[in-house]
């Protein structure tokens, strides 16, 4: 493996949470990435990525110079999946082969599968560490997968096998596959009668970042750099405490709005759902896995199709109370005996809610 100089790489970070943007930029800079362009949502990301103009011949020019995209999955208006589909399929895309790292606190199998089918290179689950982020960056640079163009898919090969697979699972024969070694050859594909194309392109990003220092024991990142990056993240714990305090206040206000107008509680409840998603992705970064667990539970209980009832609003309040205990007592790790008691309290609240579920109101509809 080669030692890589990530100061030569330009990253587009797409993240709607201001606090998560801060965590990412701090970690990336600690890992050596100096050129970071930030987008606060998917629409802004596409504006940044779009080439500035079209020539008379119809060619796209004015490449943004972005080497890699790090994008959150769940964002309002235009989410990470939409950004990825635009990048892989749009005629306005600056580079359909641009490495794409999808990030989400919802690392459920359906989310990962959808992201894979849209053409991600790698997936990073929140909460994450500097080591986890570094490993994903290294994988995309050192071990880029061949790209596959098929009737229903374009993106990195979804199969992660060491040995080459010569035929597609759906019955495509080797004679129906064409291998392309340069993007310049892509223009000839419209005249090809093949069903599937494999793009095995030069590792340009690796060549750009390689320092010349190689060897079997050489790591892409100096271990001291990784250690320093982890330390930088932990230095933000005070900022995290401030963010949690503000977030719990927002949760409390949303909960109160639900109580004040149960017939229109779907709107504030959707705010609870959004905040819970952020909570589930951040607590574990700073050693508060209970925050992640309670945030995940609250997120799952407040999905769009849930019936809004007094029992549900009571369950939301139970989650908020548990989150307050964790923050007030600064309970890290599993919390020992206190953590067990809190988890028991959550389980009891859920059982009570399940028993009252049939007596709720009709679902409130958001306007």
CATH fold-level name of the largest domain: Rossmann fold
What about the largest sheet?
A: 5 strands, parallel
The CATH superfamily of the largest domain bears the name Response regulator
| Estimated structural class | alpha/beta
Assembly level: single chain
CATH class of the largest domain: Alpha Beta
Strand content: 5-15%
Q: How would you state the average pLDDT, rounded?
A: 86
Strand order, largest beta sheet: 3-2-6-7-8
Radius of gyration: 23 Å
Q: Total domains, how many? A: 3
Order of SSEs, N→C? EEHEHEEEHEHEHEEEEHEHHHHHH
Shape: globular
Please work out how many helical segments DSSP would assign: 12
Description:
This protein is an alpha/beta fold and 367 residues long. The protein has three domains: 2-140 and 212-232, Response regulator (Rossmann fold, 3-Layer(aba) Sandwich), CATH 3.40.50.2300; 145-202, no CATH class; 236-359, Four Helix Bundle (Hemerythrin (Met), subunit A). The protein contains twelve helices and 13 strands. The protein has helices at 18-30, 42-49, 80-89, 109-118, 130-142, 204-209, 223-234, 237-260, 266-280, 289-301, 310-329, 336-356, and strands spanning 2-4, 10-14, 35-39, 53-54, 60-61, 68-72, 100-104, 122-125, 147-150, 153-156, 177-180, 196-199, 210-214. Strands 3-2-6-7-8 form a five-stranded parallel beta sheet, with helices on both faces. A four-stranded mixed beta sheet has the order 10-9-12-11, with no helix packed on it. Helix 4 links the parallel strand 7 and strand 8 (122-125). Helix 9 (266-280) runs antiparallel to helix 10 (289-301) and helix 11 (310-329) runs antiparallel to helix 12. The longest helix has 24 residues, at 237-260. The radius of gyration is 23 Å and the shape is globular. The chain starts with a strand and ends in an 11-residue tail after the last helix. Mean pLDDT is 86; it is low at 162-169 and 360-367.
